[in-house]
Amino acid sequence: MRVLVTGGAGFIGSHFVRRLLGDGCPELAADRVVVLDKLTYAGNRANLAPVADDPRLEFVRGDICDAPLVGRLTHGADLVVHFAAESHVDRSITDASAFVTTNVLGTHTLLRAAADTGGVRFVHVSTDEVYGSIEEGSWTEDHPLEPNSPYAASKASSDLLALAFHRTHGVDVRVTRCSNNYGPYQHPEKAVPLFTTQLIDGLPVPLYGDGGNRRDWLHVDDHCRGIALVAAAGRPGEVYNIGGGTELTNRRLVDHLLELTGRDASWVRAVQDRAAHDRRYSVDITKISRELGYAPLVPFDDGLAATVRWYRENRSWWEPLKTAVPA
Ligand code: NAD
């Protein structure tokens, strides 16, 4: 199978590519993997270093908004797995223009290319943030989309466009909506690597508001396994939630990280809450479990401990990124 992975130099996309070229996705049997990535501040060739010499991998630096390039690459693919996005909520609050360009227009460019090519399977990687915020219970896939941040709104737009291209143009689109990912190679602007690297260095960690916002935590390896299942055996035009099964307040997450780094609560600084900060996310994963046999396999305590260990052992990976992004 020939696979085009957009955003394959980012956190989750690169994990997917490493898995695809390792033995992590037998159901997809990839004999050729093309990564299309613009290498924004969030993209990093070093994330693909473990598979850089694999003859099946081709890296193309380019923009998903570049229609001729996207058309050529899509034409040579059996499967597109679309990760490329502007992904940081805080940045979307400061300025959402790049989010609209990449997440909405870029996704449209890819969908257009898939429609023109025909016969391409298209997995669109979306997020649980498109649902908004939920006080109790969990979202099933048919819940209305009520995004609050500009990031989530841009993802909801692309998510709906993808489903519209299935209905209107018959593109074999499958949408995944996952919860908060954690794991190695995540940019240190995001909560887990930011807090971990701050604490490793004996620096304070910022905690939004009262720390009571709740998130479901999903190890990136479980997420990528779920995506592979959807790509291989999901149904066209369907949406699949992917969750990790560990719900924590941000305060509790920080407690875990304090313990793993041997620091105490005096390192935590309360900061003003994020505007329109969603209180709680929770996805119902019954559909993907029943249809595709998905269940998260990485126990949270083990996954988080391994993640903290990875940041301890890979300072040379994150230090240059942190100097470019003030905490
Ligand atoms: P990331 O920010 O780490 O990586 C994004 C990648 O996309 C980078 O390599 C970047 O260079 C590339 N990119 C950005 N704009 C591009 C463009 N115009 N053309 C080509 N490449 C471009 O993001 P991530 O955390 O790996 O997230 C991957 C996907 O998963 C995103 O679509 C995101 O919305 C979704 N998602 C992430 C999470 C999470 O917890 N990280 C949760 C839910 C959904």
Note the main attributes of this structure:
12 strands, 41% helix, alpha/beta, Rossmann fold, binds nicotinamide-adenine-dinucleotide
What's the CATH topology name of the domain at 2-181 and 219-242? Rossmann fold
Widest sheet: strand order?
Answer: 3-2-1-4-5-6-10
Shape: globular
Identify every distinct bound molecule in the structure, by name, code or SMILES.
nicotinamide-adenine-dinucleotide
Main beta-sheet strand count, sense and barrel state: 7 strands, parallel
Helix coverage percent: 40-55%
Tell me the name of the CATH class of the domain at 2-181 and 219-242. Answer: Alpha Beta
Number of helical runs? Answer: 11
Global Rg: 19 Å
Q: Could you outline the blueprint of secondary structure elements for this entry?
A:
Layout: E1 2-6, H1 11-21, E2 32-37, E3 57-61, H2 67-75, E4 79-82, H3 89-94, H4 97-117, E5 121-127, H5 150-169, E6 172-178, E7 180-182, H6 191-200, E8 205-208, E9 214-219, H7 220-233, E10 239-242, E11 246-249, H8 250-261, E12 268-271, H9 286-292, H10 300-313, H11 315-324
Parallel strand pairs: 1-2, 1-4, 2-3, 4-5, 5-6, 6-10, 7-9, 8-12
Antiparallel strand pairs: 9-11
The protein binds nicotinamide-adenine-dinucleotide (NAD).
